[in-house]
Amino acid sequence: MSTRSHTFTEPAKKHLGQHFLHERGIIDKIVQAVDPKPGDRLVEIGPGQGAITFPLLDRHGELTVIEFDRDLIFPLTEAARAHGTLEVIHRDVLTVDFSALAHNTGGDGQIRLVGNLPYNLSSPILFHALEHAAAIRDMHFMLQKEVVDRMAAGPGSKVYGRLGVMLQAYCHVTPLFDVPPGAFRPPPKVDSAVVRLVPRAPDTIGITDPTMYSAVVRDAFGQRRKTLRNALSNLCDADAIAAAGVRPEARAEQIEVADFVRLANSLAAR
Ligand code: SAM
């Protein structure tokens, strides 16, 4: 079945990060990666002209989408009739309460998020989703490849940093496949990649004070070439770092996520 409709007449809007997917093979790979099962509550962020929306609807029968561009709402709603039951939320995704959405959708009380995200908003959307992690079963997002690389990086990698350490504490991060610019209209300037994020069970995260965790990670990578002793001097001294079993002379890029968690918990307990 066609994924596009002649009713979408508006040109892509740059300020909304609109790059519409047209490569059938990539769209199929995203749907396969999501692999919706009966009863799943799927929520797509930024459906655009429906490239992923309609194949997901064909497969699953129902879907909720969150779209900010008012010019897309009517054509999306119209075109969706041929594919299944589409609930359209016309809002800025950053103002959507995912926990309330999950609560209202029935099922097991969790939603599954999907989206070819507007790249200018990808970090705010990720952190907004993390605030509602307990309401989210998993996320499949298309992002800039460079962002996916940073999300998944570990100690020793040049791109290991604040984004990866923050995300990996709360989620399992699995890069799935890369997507070239030519798969979109208009093509973005950068390569893209699809990533799967699965929030960890709340009782396995182990962070006792999320504000302290954020502060430790922010300061540690704020000056990544400095030793922890120097980078964290506003938060603690070398003895407090050592008391958590972390070397004060190490640099942030050498420290595992689990060590950051232990350090933040130890500082929070003082
Ligand atoms: N899913 C479509 C596709 O793959 O072809 C469109 C993806 S396009 C990269 C990003 C989409 O996010 C656009 O439809 C854009 O209008 C929408 N968008 C941008 N900012 C948004 C926001 N704050 N809240 C919800 N949707 C937004």
TrEMBL record:
Its EC number is 2.1.1.182. It is an enzyme of class 2 (transferase). It catalyses: adenosine(1518)/adenosine(1519) in 16S rRNA + 4 S-adenosyl-L-methionine = N(6)-dimethyladenosine(1518)/N(6)-dimethyladenosine(1519) in 16S rRNA + 4 S-adenosyl-L-homocysteine + 4 H(+). It comes from the Bacteria. Signal peptide: none annotated. GO terms for molecular function: 16S rRNA (adenine(1518)-N(6)/adenine(1519)-N(6))-dimethyltransferase activity. It comes from Lysobacter stagni. Belongs to the class I-like SAM-binding methyltransferase superfamily. rRNA adenine N(6)-methyltransferase family. RsmA subfamily. Specifically dimethylates two adjacent adenosines (A1518 and A1519) in the loop of a conserved hairpin near the 3'-end of 16S rRNA in the 30S particle. May play a critical role in biogenesis of 30S subunits. Residues 26-201 form the Ribosomal RNA adenine methylase transferase N-terminal domain. S-adenosyl-L-methionine binds at H19, L21, G46, E67, D92, N116. Pfam families: RrnaAD. Keywords: Cytoplasm, Methyltransferase, RNA-binding, rRNA processing, S-adenosyl-L-methionine, Transferase. It is found in: Cytoplasm. This is Ribosomal RNA small subunit methyltransferase A.
